[in-house]
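Model it.
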Amino acid sequence: MRDVMRWKYAALLALAVLAAGCSSNSKKELPPAELPDFTEEVELKKEWSRSVGDGQGDSFNMLVPAVDGDQIFASDVNGEVMALNRFSGDKLWEQDLDLPVSGAVGAGYGLVLLGTLKGEVIALDAATGEEKWRSRVTSEVLAAPATNGDVVVVQTQDDRLIALDAATGNQRWIYENTPAVLTLRGTGAPIVTSRLAFAGLSSGKVIALDTQRGLPVWEQRVAVPQGRSELERVVDIDGGLVLSDNVLYVVSYQGRVAGLDLESGRILWQREASSNVGLAQGLGNVYVSLANGTIEGIDERSASALWSNEALARRQLSAPEVFSSYVAFGDFEGYLHLVSQVDGRFVGRERIDSDGLRARPLVVGDWLYAFGNSGDLVALTIR
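Modeled.
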């Protein structure tokens, strides 16, 4: 019963955080900001577009596609999984799992990995789409599983980390953790290297585990719960982690954005921030989509803000991604925005999906892939 109630609270909190402008109480919410005018400096070229089933669905899923080599893999909320050539958009295979997919997509080492609301992890053959194995875990999986070719690591909604054998799906180990009393609905995807697995927890901590035995190597608190109410004390790390040059980047809700030393977990720098969707890193800077709709560029060396763009307040921004010299992110009306990494000014805009663009853009080289809420998967380049 406790798990059921926690899930209900989490779902309600996610709605409260993400559905800005929909409150019916006596305090009138401010509407989302209107799109600002600007002089377009960058033109985006749509290389191809493909419809992937019903897309994200209505449960605030973050079904981000995955690229492995020349293939891109995407799944909709009902388990319609596609493999496409990432340059042409040609369909290579399709698999209909007929399952409520909520964690998607992980890919690598010949596997395509998905998690479900039923607490299952499914591995497909990347070349054919054939199911290789499925395993049951302790609760629903809301983020993509990750693999290093030896183990598949998944984070469940009840804040456990579970390692499965990559070849068979058999459980190798489980890391038990007590989740916070009240949490946002969601988890970040773990990161797995040859030796360590990293994850952000609902308690505001980042944990590093040995991939062979699941034993903690280090843990670091990024956010400290503050306030008198449980709502004020929510400090989930739901936006995932970013790894670059032996630095692990993390941001929490109602907490901080920080850079951690990969080997020790030592905090290299930190700054107050609140985000439930995540961050990106590039050119020695970190870019964060804040919960209030501000995009901020932060200098890693000084932990000070280089710039702050507040023009898209309350537009429910996606996590950002670095694309060429720009920062790309989506909003609730399905616009993909490009701002300069240097000063945060708007340089480009393209509407992807009128139902919204909730999932983080995926950037590989000179290509950007955006997966809209209704299922439109679009490949873009810069003209």
